[in-house]
Amino acid sequence: MNKNGKAFPIPVRTNYSCSKCPAYCCSYPEIEVSSRDIERLAKHFDLSYRDAEERFTKYDAKEKVRLLRHRQDRVFATVCMFLDQKKRRCTVYEARPGVCRNYPDSPRCGYYEFLKFERAHQDDPKFIALT
Ligand code: SF4
Ligand code: SF4
């Protein structure tokens, strides 16, 4: 505990490096957004809630949730519309949805482990592993 009675933050070591990854998690077809996420995106783009909801999300009637819209990608079949497909980075990082903030919610990322293994195996540090 520190002098304010708060526990010291424990640094968490992660086994993945998103900057070396082609953003596989942004290709997940079901990236769910909450109304708070839509509000944040609306504010970021200076849009109304309804416009942001319409432009950036689609309704999944089966699951009764709203999902981020996708577009075609040259690496994976489709990716979130907010991914910069050249740099493989999020273009709305500060306003990204909660689910993106929390992912992978663990010190390990399964895809990155697979990617590292394939890159070592192929002896190519830029190899892109497709699942
Ligand atoms: S798949 Fe894993 S390593 Fe790649 S961007 Fe997502 S969290 Fe990062
Ligand atoms: S909002 Fe950003 S982090 Fe989330 S899926 Fe889209 S590109 Fe990836």
Features:
alpha+beta; two-stranded antiparallel ribbon; about 130 residues; 3-stranded antiparallel beta sheet; binds iron/sulfur cluster; globular; 7 strands
Descriptive account of the structure:
With 131 residues, the protein is α+β, with helices and mostly antiparallel strands. The protein has a domain at 28-103. Helix content is 28%, strand content 15%. The protein has four helices and seven strands. The chain has a three-stranded antiparallel β-sheet with strand order 1-3-2. Strands 4-5 form a two-stranded antiparallel ribbon. A two-stranded antiparallel sheet has the order 6-7. The longest helix has 13 residues, at 110-122. It is globular, with a radius of gyration of 17 Å. One iron/sulfur cluster (SF4) binds at residues 26, 31, 68, 80, 82-83, 90, 92, 96-97, 100.
- Poorly predicted spans: none
**Quaternary:** single chain
What's the count of strands? 7
Largest sheet report:
3 strands, antiparallel
Overall pLDDT, averaged?
A: 91
- Shape label: globular
What letter string, H or E per element, gives the SSE order? Answer: EHHEEEEEEHH
The percent range for strand residues is 15-25%
- Structural class category: alpha+beta
Cα separation of the termini: 44 Å
Structural Rg: 17 Å
Q: Helicity, in percent?
A: 25-40%
- Tell me the number of helical segments per DSSP (H or I, 4 or more residues long): 4
How do the strands of the widest beta sheet line up side by side? 1-3-2
Small molecules bound in the structure, each named once: iron/sulfur cluster
